[in-house]
Design goal:
By secondary structure, the protein is mainly alpha-helical. 77% of the residues lie in helices and 0% in strands. It has three helices and no strands.
Length: 82
């Protein structure tokens, strides 16, 4: 069984696209940098930012794996030698 944080991250990974997670992460960082939040609010924002960063990392790692797989495939040059 997973804790609520892990379950939330797993759910967010399945439902958020890269751009949506990135945009929300930018907003979280902006709010943290602006200050004016309570300690509790800042901690909640930080935790959300960590979750969003994991989502972005997941998408980027998947994209990298797809690119690596595509580059590893033999290229069909179109020449019919042999």
């Amino acid at each position: 069984m997973t804790d609520d944080g892990t379950a939330a991250t797993a759910a967010a990974t399945g439902t958020l696209g890269y751009e949506q997670a990135r945009d929300e992460l930018i907003e979280v960082v902006r709010r943290l940098e602006a200050g004016g939040t309570t300690l509790e609010e800042s901690l909640a924002l930080w935790e959300r930012g960590e979750e969003l960063a994991k989502v972005c990392r997941h998408w980027l790692e998947g994209a990298r794996a797809r690119l690596d797989a595509a580059l590893a495939r033999p290229q069909d040059s179109g020449d019919d030698e042999g």
